[in-house]
Amino acid sequence: MLALAATNGVGVVLFGTLYALAGARRLPQAAFVTCLIVVFALVTALWVRAEAHHRTLHLSRRVGRVTVGLLAVIVVTPAAVLMPLFWLERVLPPEADAGTVLAPVMTLVLVSLVLVVLTNLVGSAVIACRAVLRARGERP
């Protein structure tokens, strides 16, 4: 469960960084799409590898581990990223205009979390396909 949460955390950081670079216009669109595909594939492969270590567990325990690992990241990421920003907005003087940072950061967090959920779904599909192939004897 901890490995899956860590994998999801790595995905949040990578997707957030990629989207921040693209939003700051540091990446051309073609490079962004290429990087997005590569990072998505890498995070999905890492997730599948982390989850595959528990293939001997019963299906309900595996689903529970995946769910808890994903929920941990969905709860912790906004708390760790947005709570300090809301605190800074409250503490800093109005001239600092800290409120203009909140919307882009919230967007980055949301997009990163959605992409991590998608990697979990794709990874789950990969594991299910492997299990079906293994049951049919087509793959060791």
Summarize the structure in words.
This protein is mainly alpha-helical. The protein has one domain. 84% of the residues lie in helices and 0% in strands. It is built from 4 helices and no strands. Helix 1 runs antiparallel to helix 2, helix 1 crosses helix 3 and helix 3 runs antiparallel to helix 4. The longest helix is centred in the last third of the chain and has 38 residues.
Topology:
Layout (H helix, E strand, L loop, with lengths): L1 H22 L5 H24 L6 H33 L7 H38 L4
Helix pairs in contact: 1-2, 1-3, 1-4, 2-4, 3-4
Task: Provide a compact summary of the structure.
By secondary structure, the chain is mainly α. The chain has four helices and no strands.
Features:
140 residues, mainly alpha, 0% strand, single chain
Mean pLDDT: 92
Number of strands: 0
Shape descriptor reads elongated
Beta-strand share of residues:
under 5%
Gap from first CA to last CA: 25 Å
Overall number of structural domains: 1
- The residue ranges in which pLDDT falls below 50 over 5 or more consecutive positions are none
Query: What are the secondary-structure elements, in order, as H or E?
Result: HHHH
Determine the structural class based on helices, strands and strand pairing.
mainly alpha
